[in-house]
Design goal:
heterodimer; A: alpha/beta; Rossmann fold; 9 helices; 10 strands; B: mainly alpha; two-stranded antiparallel ribbon; 2% strand
Chain lengths: 262, 329
């Protein structure tokens, strides 16, 4: 099966702390892949390395786009990543509070806009036309995640659950081939989490998109992910299906502590 | 009702109100001069709003950009006898280039550090205005004339009408800009740099854009200034003016198109209003003191800016009407 992302011997240190230590894994096309580990295991750091918000000390990160072309992500500017079809969300949501919900989603299509400053200033008809088209696409995305009724309300006034959905919707605007979700269910209640699980599953299936997610809600991870990678202190403990991970003694020790620790 | 909500029409109305002093007979010329001060300040403030209100960047050097364009246009029209519109174009290219340099600096510096760097830039320019007297006339300054546009010589009122027209046009352009992908990216950059970058916004590019736009607007304001007052000297282009531009944007309403206009009207109008008051207006210094206190009060009780007042009043009464219908009151 062909891969969409491969992370090869990734390491990064902050001061003396090795946040990620020689970590390798790869994600297949259309796969839902989970990254789990105790608090501070380095999960978000891995995401930040992949999306080039952090520059890793060692290791190679490769991404294969829709056309089958392979890109080395190391050293790429962070704003170029989305153009390849790799898009992410954030653990504590990064929403533009001053903008309406629909404009937040439209931001996800930023790289699609062809108009420059002057064309926008003079409201050239072709620029307005593209804006209208993408606005329509954003409305479709909002309908998909169930926010179309409040599309024009300001994002800043929305509850946390809605912010999470806005972020998810925003990732769909660039027709991604891999979405990285950082704790998509964090702060959500049970029914919201259930709906989100269905949404993520639907996105992977209908939009032919791979998903890499970090999540503490084990029910969600075990029920959703095709494969799971467990890490602790930046090192890989185990990789496999939900059942395999649950049985793994190393993983159990990392989460619950070893007996001789007690 | 829908017609009133049309923004272009609103800006044209603003322009029409500004034209009243030259339309109504018997208005003293001092009033036109005061209104012209409002207009050129509003033009510069409009640019500062793109920079500060929409993009979240700060500059204390833009007053010097206004000065630079003012001197250039005076020099180009008088010494080189260039036509006014051409000299205006050339005169705004200089602050545009310097603005781009500041934008590049802004990629490395943020907040206080950027404020200090731009302050230094502005002061250096102002020193140059004093030193380069072949170009600027040194301390005594340079003079300019009312411009000729397409062979048509403008009077004082004519120049004022030109300025009002320019302001209205720029308001429309800014409205278009902030309601487009460019404006969205700027607001995103201000609100969450992280989100902006993850969504493909090149922060470096957008900082350059916002500095470029604000510098050009400052330049246009400077050109208007010199051809209206027909004189320019270095005492005007101080950091205090840059601070005033920021203050009027905040007072009027940051991240709104009309905010700078409201701010400019209040900033120039309020002191005049106070000076006209009986007793307090006659004691030197007191009117300005009261203006300062009023502005502090505005910022404490209305930090989002005065431009939001009409909308807030409407929503207040709508809510009250809604409650009255439910029978809560």
């Amino acid at each position: 099966m062909d891969q969409v992302l491969s992370v090869d011997h990734l390491s990064i240190s902050f001061g003396g702390l090795r946040a990620v230590d020689d970590l390798s894994f790869s994600i297949n096309r259309h796969e839902i892949y989970g990254l789990i580990g105790p608090n501070g295991a380095g999960k978000t750091t891995v995401f930040n390395c992949i999306t080039q918000f952090y520059k890793p000390d060692a290791g190679e990160i490769r991404f294969t786009d829709q056309m089958g072309k392979e890109h080395l992500l190391n050293g790429m500017p962070a704003h170029k990543i989305i153009g390849l079809g790799l898009v992410r969300t954030f653990q504590n949501t990064e929403i533009i509070r001053e903008l309406p919900i629909i404009d937040n989603v439209l931001l996800g299509a930023h790289t699609e806009f062809k108009a420059g400053v002057l064309a926008n200033m003079f409201a050239m008809p072709w620029a307005r036309k593209q804006e209208r088209e993408l606005r329509k696409k954003a409305m479709d995305v909002l309908a998909y995640v169930g926010l179309d009724k409040i599309a024009n309300e300001y994002a800043g006034a929305q509850p946390y659950g809605v912010l999470k959905l806005i972020e998810l919707g925003r990732t769909l605007m660039c027709d991604p081939s891999l979405i990285i979700l950082d704790e998509p269910a964090g702060g959500l209640n049970d029914s919201e989490t259930e709906r989100l699980t269905e949404l993520i599953r639907g996105i992977a299936k209908e939009r032919h998109c791979a998903i890499l997610l970090v999540e503490h809600d084990m029910k969600l991870v075990m029920g959703l992910c095709d494969r799971i990678c467990a890490i602790s202190f930046g090192k890989k403990l185990a990789e496999g299906t939900a059942a395999e991970i649950q049985k793994n003694t190393l993983v159990q020790d990392a989460y619950l502590g070893k007996e001789d620790d007690a | 009702m829908r017609l009133i909500r049309n923004k272009y029409l609103q800006y044209l109305l603003v322009g029409a109100v500004f034209l009243l002093p030259v339309i109504i007979h018997g208005v003293p010329t001092a009033t036109v001069t005061l209104a012209a001060s409002m207009v050129y300040t509003a033009i510069a403030g409009l640019g500062i709003n793109v920079l500060l209100g929409y993009s979240g960047q700060i500059s204390l050097g833009h007053a010097a950009f206004m000065g630079l364009s003012a001197y250039m246009s005076a020099y180009l029209t008088k010494q080189l006898e260039l036509p006014f519109l051409l000299s205006m174009l050339v005169a705004v290219i200089a602050p545009l280039l310097i603005g781009l340099i500041l934008g590049a600096i802004a990629v490395r510096l943020e907040g206080f550090y950027l404020a200090i760097a731009t302050l230094g830039f502005g002061e250096i320019l102002r020193q140059l205005f004093i030193e380069m007297d072949w170009f600027t006339g040194g301390f005594s300054g340079a003079s300019a004339t009312y411009p000729k546009i397409f062979g048509h010589a403008l009077t004082k009122n004519g120049m004022y009408i030109f300025m009002v027209g320019l302001l209205v046009a720029l308001m429309m352009l800014v409205y278009n800009l902030v309601h487009s992908s460019t404006g969205r990216a700027m607001i995103a950059m201000k609100s969450s740099r992280t989100a902006a970058m993850a969504m493909g916004v090149n922060v470096f590019q957008y900082k350059l854009i916002s500095f470029a736009i604000s510098s050009v607007f400052a330049g246009l304001a400077g050109v208007c200034y010199v051809h209206f007052f027909r004189h320019v000297d270095p005492t005007v282009w101080t950091a205090a003016l840059s601070l005033n531009l920021i203050a009027l944007v905040v007072i009027g309403g940051a991240a709104t198109v009309g905010g700078a206009v409201v701010g400019a009207v209040v900033m120039h109008g309020l002191p005049e209003l106070m000076k006209g008051m009986p007793i307090i207006g006659e004691i030197p210094g007191v009117p300005l003191l009261i203006v300062g206190i009023l502005m502090a009060i505005m910022l404490i009780f209305y930090p989002r800016g005065l431009i939001h007042i009409p909308r807030d009043i409407v929503t207040f009464f709508q809510k009250r009407a809604a409650r009255a219908q439910k029978g809560d009151v």
